[in-house]
C-alpha cells in the first residue's frame, strides 16, 4: 500500500511547514488516474497523524476525474479506467487530467490571544 508512504510524506511536509502551529485541515487533489486510492489515503492519514502534530486534523480530498485526448480522432473524453482507450478504439491517447496528487491548502487553527 503506497498510500501509507505518500500520506506519511504529506504529513511530514505539512508538519515541517507549519512549525508547531495547530492544523485543522489538509486539502489535496487526487486524480483518478494517479494510482492513488483516496479512501486508502484517508485511512492512512488518520493512522499517521494519531498522536503527532497533526492529530485531529481532517484530510479533505478533491477527486479529479480522468480525461483523455485521442491523437487519432481528436476526441476528448472522460475516463475512470487505467486502460486508456478512446471510444474509436485507438490507444494513442494523451492524458489531459486525472494524474494529479497535489497539496492545495492547509488550514490552521486560529489561536486566541490573551490581551
UniProtKB/TrEMBL annotation:
Keyword Metal-binding: yes
Keywords: Metal-binding, Nickel, Zinc
List of residues binding Zn(2+): 70, 73, 86, 88
Entry keyword annotation includes Secreted: no
Domain of life: Bacteria
Pfam family for this entry, one: HypA
Gene3D superfamilies xref list: 3.30.2320.80
InterPro entries per the UniProt record, alphabetical: HypA/HybF (IPR000688)
Binding locations of Ni(2+): 2
Function per UniProt: Involved in the maturation of [NiFe] hydrogenases. Required for nickel insertion into the metal center of the hydrogenase.
PANTHER family assigned: HYDROGENASE MATURATION FACTOR HYPA
The family this protein is said to belong to: Belongs to the HypA/HybF family.
Protein name as catalogued: Hydrogenase maturation factor HypA
The encoding gene: hypA
